[in-house]
Amino acid sequence: MKPPYFLFDIGASHTRIGVSIDGETIANTEIYPTPQDFGEGVNILTQKAKSLVSGMSALIGGIAGPLNQGKTMITRAPNLPNWNNKPLGEELVKLTGAKVFLENDTALVGLGEAVKGAGRGFNIVAYMTVSTGVNGVRVVSQKIDTNALGFEIGKQIIDFDNTFDGEARVFEDLVAGSQFMRRHGKAAHEIDDAAVWEEEARLVAYGLNNLILFWSPEVVVLGGAVSKKIPLQSVIVNLQNMLTIFHELPQVRMAEIADFGGLWGALHWAKSLS
């Protein structure tokens, strides 16, 4: 499928957009708050697409949450409840007249990091985001790994009997940005206490331990807004102490593409679409 493409990444807190005219570069990037109302979100997205791209062949991008089997809408997204079961793909086609391709937002960010960021040069890349929520993806040979239902690693049960945190059972409840107010009384970006971030590094390492055991990657890339304040070396030290079954650990790196990994992932994905 030939460009031009309108690229988007609808996250739980912010939406990122961009345009690729030549199929190789991205221009006119922008970040804006994600509307919680589905209709408003679709209208803003289509208005921006029409104003930025003339004769676009497709809208390609990700959205936060698990998708239905046909990948036309999200179904059980905890952070975008008013978007659930709404015909996102159908509405975008109707309003723009272009083809629409949807994927999970974290999957495309991970693909972007595997192709153009911290995972480039590796065949098996595991990506994990710690942001408003937590999720990840396995990328093999520069493609999102084959799957039946998608990836939702933030929902793995860590504290099965609620002995560590009486209100948390799953990994996401322990480390996600949305949980900082409950656990610490402040938003993540407001906290500079080194002890809090050392504890966050320890908890993140538990999730990475499981991710490495299940996915056996060559490199792990850690991204997301919250991860920017996590001391990476502390994560690695904790991981070395807990993951001893393998003779060596994969590399653990911070994401490199900053805010637009999802757009680069969408652009790479576009090359395999028709």
Automatic annotation (TrEMBL):
Domain of life where this protein originates: Bacteria
Pfam families listed in its UniProt record: ROK
InterPro entries listed in its UniProt record: ATPase_NBD, ROK
PANTHER family for this protein: BIFUNCTIONAL UDP-N-ACETYLGLUCOSAMINE 2-EPIMERASE_N-ACETYLMANNOSAMINE KINASE, ROK (REPRESSOR, ORF, KINASE) FAMILY
Family statement drawn from the similarity comment of this UniProt entry: Belongs to the ROK (NagC/XylR) family.
Protein name in the entry: Glucokinase
Organism: Candidatus Woesebacteria bacterium RIFCSPHIGHO2_01_FULL_44_21
Taxonomic lineage: Bacteria, Candidatus Woeseibacteriota
